[in-house]
Predict the structure.
Amino acid sequence: MIAQDTLSIPGISTPVSRVALGTWAIGGWMWGGPDDDNAIRTIHRALDEGVNLLDTAPVYGFGHSEEVIGRALAGRRDKAVIATKVGLNWKDEKPFRDSTPARIRQEIEESLRRLKTDYIDLYQVHWPDDKTPIAETAETLAALVREGKVRALGVSNYSVEQMETFAAHAPLATAQPPYNLFERGIEADILPYLVRQKLVGLGYGPLCRGLLAGRMTADTTFPKDDLRSADPKFQALRFAQYLAAVDRLRALAERHGTSVMVLAIRWVLDQGPMIALWGARKPAQIDGVSDVFGWHLSDEDRAEIDAILKETITDPVGPEFMAPPNR
């Protein structure tokens, strides 16, 4: 096992690794289909590397990601901290927001069954449901904690105001926003709120859908069932700008004797009380996790990164395209 930095999440007795395994792609949906054998080997490899936090959701493959994790953790449940989500429903593989108490009660039982466990370590509301009062959602989740089905609660994609409302009705331990070198909207309000309230952040997309993995070129294309085919960052002129930024970041990373992928993850961890969700679906995609630890970016490094982004990306865009509709 590789030594990792850890953070403590209130309600969870086991310290969690500051790199977590993100399992959206393992579900297959919007990522070109599943590959279960590789997925299970990936989960085992992550655990062997000291990554003990596994982040999933029912909507990732419409239950498939959770099922694969349940299979992978047979005999190893005590080695993993499971973070899954609640609050999305779907019809004909089209998700929509639904955080009603009835939906939460249905989802918790389905997730427990798929994950083959009797409790979930961290249960997170996936997206705010504008048609359900946050107080109702929070109070239903607080009841699950009291019942022993959930250890800790989090939210994802919530604004500061929404988090404040939630926290008034249930113990809030974490928030999961999008965060990477190219998508930094949380720095205006959400990240300072996490620091003030001593919450742990789980930054999703720290490699920006693979863009910061450093392997893409101008000739890289994506099939229609791949999320990135609809991502504005991967279209025409914008894609060229982001690739140019990655090339410049690679030069900086090489001065540190590392890769742009490791640089991007280290940058997220240096920004505050953050955990980075490292998405992978093949064991080889875990390579580099151990290189994230034992060093930090300097103030000069961060200033150089900011300058690179300003000089290369004239038309930045956020992750808003991923937001599912309300009911």
Remarks:
- The chain has a mean pLDDT of 93.
